[in-house]
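ok new one. same drill as before - structure tokens go in, u give me an amino acid for every spot. 372 of them this time. try not to just spam alanines like last time pls lmao
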């Protein structure tokens, strides 16, 4: 049938993994308008300016680009204001609000779920512990309770779920009672490629936002003891604290362009990934450049790294376990072509094929039932 598609995205005010998925989805449906709560043109790639992007009433609220999180109580209302009655297929790309759009029986709604609302479910108690103001903490308990109710209700508005990893699939089942198809996010394998003559400049590498849950502190403590070169690419509110911990063998380079990051992938000895992520795209980018990964064996990394073939996994999130994994790695040899081949399972082309196949399957099933 002739599909008229709309895409719904939480917000466009930073460019990260979710926005890379949006780029690929939009490449499949280039005529589809993109509905989003807020849009900060200055923080998005130039090509976004050519897209049909439609924002909610929050776009006109004061200081929303800088303090958008403070408007979270208005976000359920804002996403429900989008009128999608002109479409018969809605694709929501959601880690919070987008899947809450209202659609009629004539519309098939497929949600690519990056995660159920982390701040309301998985991270709820950690968020409370970090909050020092007792009045604000009490307010959080009340308001996030109501947000969870809204989130559970709006999960029933989705006809088909896609999860970006098995870990997220399990969360969708637990919090929403729904099954999901796993389609991992895309990696730019055509852009991240090995050099013809494989290089090893003797340093280890990690690429990450410098946030507490990324556990870069673990890598720093381990490499302080190993006294081996470690290059850290990325920035964040943890940078000052982490730099104070690091010995001279550890270098912080801050934010770099994708071209510069590719150069470091190509020249590193191995990629270090000490955190627990639902999926994790950086380890795949490293493998796409033919480089092995040393990673904490929990979460999405189990789906992207083959222990002993494309990297070394360690099973306790401790300094000593990472040290042991590095020493084990140095006793092994890895085939860059095999590592690259493993990464190709997550290429942009493979993502587009899997997503389009699933969309067609769901649409045929949904409208077949509606027409019966």
């Amino acid at each position: 049938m002739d599909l008229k598609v709309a895409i719904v995205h939480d917000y466009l005010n930073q460019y990260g993994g979710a926005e890379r998925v949006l780029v690929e989805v939009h490449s499949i449906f280039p005529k589809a308008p993109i509905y989003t709560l807020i849009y900060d043109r200055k923080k998005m790639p130039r090509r976004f300016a050519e897209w049909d992007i439609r924002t909610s009433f929050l776009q006109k609220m004061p200081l929303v680009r800088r303090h958008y999180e403070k408007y979270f109580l208005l976000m359920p209302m804002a996403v429900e204001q989008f009128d999608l009655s002109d479409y018969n297929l809605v694709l929501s790309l959601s880690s919070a609000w987008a899947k809450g759009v209202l659609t009629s029986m004539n519309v098939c709604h497929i949600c690519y779920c990056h995660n159920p609302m982390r701040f309301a479910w998985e991270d709820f108690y950690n968020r409370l512990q970090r909050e020092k103001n007792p009045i604000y903490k009490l307010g959080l308990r009340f308001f996030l309770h109501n947000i969870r109710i809204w989130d559970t209700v709006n999960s029933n508005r989705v006809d088909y779920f896609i999860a970006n990893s098995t870990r997220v699939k399990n969360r969708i089942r637990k919090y929403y009672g729904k099954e999901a198809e796993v389609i991992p996010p895309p990696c730019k394998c055509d852009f991240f490629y090995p050099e013809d003559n494989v290089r090893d400049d003797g340093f280890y590498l990690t690429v990450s936002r410098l946030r507490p849950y990324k556990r870069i502190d673990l890598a720093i403590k381990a490499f302080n003891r190993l006294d081996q070169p470690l290059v850290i690419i990325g920035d964040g509110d943890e940078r000052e604290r982490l730099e104070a911990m690091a010995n001279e063998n550890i270098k912080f380079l801050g934010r770099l362009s994708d071209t510069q990051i590719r150069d470091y992938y190509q020249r590193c000895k191995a990629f270090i990934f000490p955190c627990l992520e639902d999926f994790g795209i950086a380890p795949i980018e490293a493998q796409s450049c033919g480089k092995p990964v040393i990673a904490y064996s929990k979460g999405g990394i189990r789906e992207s790294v083959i222990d002993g073939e494309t990297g070394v996994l360690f099973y306790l999130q401790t300094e000593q376990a990472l040290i042991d994994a590095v020493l084990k790695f140095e006793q092994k040899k890895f085939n860059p072509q095999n590592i690259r081949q493993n990464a190709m399972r997550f290429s942009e082309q493979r993502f587009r094929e899997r997503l389009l196949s699933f969309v067609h399957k769901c649409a045929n099933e949904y409208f077949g039932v509606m027409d019966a």
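Residues 204-346 form a domain with the Rossmann fold fold (CATH 3.40.50.2000). and btw The CA atoms of residues 62 and 68 lie 9 Å apart.
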